[in-house]
Amino acid sequence: MSHFLGNTCPDAELKSHVADGDLLQPTVLRSETERLLKAESSEAFVNNFTDYWLSLKDIRRDEPDARLYPEYRFDDYLIDSLAMETRTFFRYLLEQNLPITALVQTDFIFANDRLARHYDLPPLEGSKLRRVALPANSPYGGLITQGAILKVTANGTTTSPVIRGAWIMERIMGEPPPPPPPSVPAVEPDIRGAKTIRDQLAQHTRDPVCANCHARFDPVGFALENYDIMGAWRNRYRSLGQGEKVTGIDRAGHDYAYFIAGPVDAGGQLRDGRAFQNIRELKQLLVQNPRQMARNFLQQLTVYATGTPVRFSDRPVIESILDQCEAERYRVRDLLLALVQSRIFLGTEPVAAKGSES
């Protein structure tokens, strides 16, 4: 448990419960889990779990293309702030025991001075992150529209509805896409601005086999096309070849020139026929499936905590946990606590306290 929640060896208090033989009693186990979640060592859990689950370890994988996005050149402060925002948000979900739907939609974010500018919010002072209420109809809020998530699902030059949509469906909704056929090439967005990514994907999915697969995730990805490679809002794409020319000098003193190209079309239709026009409407559809999100969260925790995939024999246990947490809307800390109490984590059933047997 100490390795799971702190990436460290058991401390004296945990060892004392092991020595007393009462650690597996449900009340003791819950109390110790709560204590470890509040300990300083839990920062390692937050960092490592978000690295694994949300790919935050890849936050610096791709440098922003200075030709198309000169404003992000050498902006390490922004990248660090984006990663910190997501880690702080996840810790807040645990501490406040928020419903699992907060992964998709909240009326607040965590921001500092740089993130306030990035998200076009009222100015803030200082580098410290703080909880900030969002204006009505904000396109932000929740996890899936945070800049860190949108950066790790882009390549530094372009965004792809395929990659972003598949990522959301796998990491948040628990529906990983099947592997693409080896003979089908990937769709590369046209940075010249001659064709939109929607036009390219329409051509790509003329094959019924491709169309059936892409219908699982492309619509979700299209809803995220209003966010650029770093998660800032945009209504039109940028290109290097067509559109309205923009010139200037970046922070390093280099001249730049790019073009404002065609408009973003963020509408789509999910596989079940439900349609949406933008990210706000998509979020309203996704939050209607809280059990699906909670199941995926438990599965992600299981893999991280045990180092093994969810087995067939684990599925009834997970469904039982979901049944327990349903009335309270699948709250994040409740789900984690229930997993620690389960046979999946313990390898056995919790034991009754001495003297409690009838």
UniProtKB/TrEMBL annotation:
It comes from the Bacteria. Pfam families: PSCyt3, PSD2, PSD4. Residues 141-236 form the DUF1588 domain. Residues 272-345 form the DUF1585 domain. Residues 1-121 form the DUF1592 domain. This is DUF1588 domain-containing protein.
